[in-house]
Amino acid sequence: MSELLNTPERLTPDTFLRGLWQENPVFTMLLGMCPVLAVTGTTLNALAMGLATTFVLVGSSLLVSLLRHWIPKQVRIASYIVIIATFVTLVDYAIQAISLELYAALGAFIQLIVVNCVILGRAEAYASKQRLHTTFVNSLGMGLGFSLALLALGTVREILGQGTLLGVPVLPEGFQPWVIMALPPGGFFVLGSWLLVFNWLGPRRARRDLVASGATIHVR
Amino acid sequence: MASLATESHPEVGTSSRMEGAVGELHRAIPQADRSAPKPPGYAVSPLRLLLALGGVALFAGLAVSLVDQLTAPIIAEQYRLRTEQAVFGVLPGATQLRALHLSANGIAEGAPSVKGEMPLYAAYDPAGKLLGIAIIGSGAGYAGPVQAMFAYRPDCRCITASKVLRSNETPGFGDRLGVDPEFLENFRALDARLNAEGTGLAHPIVAVRHGTKTEPWQIDALAGATISSRALARAADSAANRAIPWIERNIDRLNSP
Q1: Which residues of chain B lie closer than 8 angstroms to A74, CB-CB?
Q2: Following DSSP, what letter does each residue of B44-94 receive, concatenated?
Q3: Mutate which: A67, A68, A74, vs B, most B CBs within 10 A
Q4: Where are the domains of chain A?
Q5: Global confidence as pTM
Q6: Most buried among A87, A188, B195, B236, by the most CB within 10 A?
Q7: Is the ipTM of this complex over 0.95?
């Protein structure tokens, strides 16, 4: 985001770490909000959705990067969508084969990974211009950043909404679950709170880094 | 914008426009990227477009059919296990299962193949004695249909268990249908006798307001989830009305596994 990457990027730790923090798909770019709000009622659902999205993201990015000289610009979006839809279908079958319960819990949101803008965004903005190895590292970072964000919402909502973590009770016996946290409004509340935390931490960190590099800060 | 460029020097016009409009950001791009002379109306040959799209589609088709072939038996097994678990759950003690279906012409062997046929599962104990028949029904709930399985026992002409298979009812309220012990008590022996002609239930199964149950065919609704309770009652009523007349008519055939 900080720079336009039209030239091949050199592989650095930042290639991976950008997706986790600086360009986190959920907390910084606010992309793919639909599954973020819809399937983070429990930690397990959030984890499954995060891993499924990561798989689709890495798989489709690799293929897009591999075919980047071969797909003409005019038909690139159509090609990307078909590639992404293919990986989503694979994930869909895999989850059905692993657990029907999980499949029922995630519902239509597995198929809706196709339209997750994190994935098409990576294909268009990164994978279609970058070499295979940097694409792999970058999309893995983005996918894990997305999974982490889902987990951040899922754990908070499950602990407060049901008093459990991955189905294991973690709060004292007398705890009355906040049902609203398991319901859609809870998703908005928790997302809002996390964004508050990130937007408070982000600038502080940036300022500290600036001070460390010897700059003078004028506080208004 | 391209029409502004003069015929003889398209690259000059294009390059100066880009410099002015987008400026700094494009400085980093190698010169070759934007100054390659392209004739007006330049396009990739349609054959290349077709080849690219066709290739991608071919890959997609191959990958999907391969994974479908690999996972189809596992997925079918998962569905079978889920049904089996549900049936054995509502009819404890059962060890054998016989899949049947109810069409307009009566009860036939095997799982339903056409939409609209109703699945039935006859469950037997190890000695081969019929324990009961699992029937499936659904009713409109608070947030979409509530689908549930019920155990019908011919010996008491009653429904002895229920299991919610699918529902979107509100967490903490409507989703207690499947777990609330007081509510499940309703299904200890829910009356499902047929009328004198044997064409339907003698008394429709209905949900009544919490704490007002007086008859054995009534379901005492969950406090705070009356609509969800009514949905489950409707599911039981519709399934029983449709399947039990046929079950009672074919009871001799069903009695032996």
Answers
A1: 43-44, 49
A2: --HHHHHHHHHHHHHHHHHHHHHHHHHHHHHHHHHHHHHHHHHHHHHSTT-
A3: A74
A4: 13-212
A5: 0.73
A6: B236
A7: no
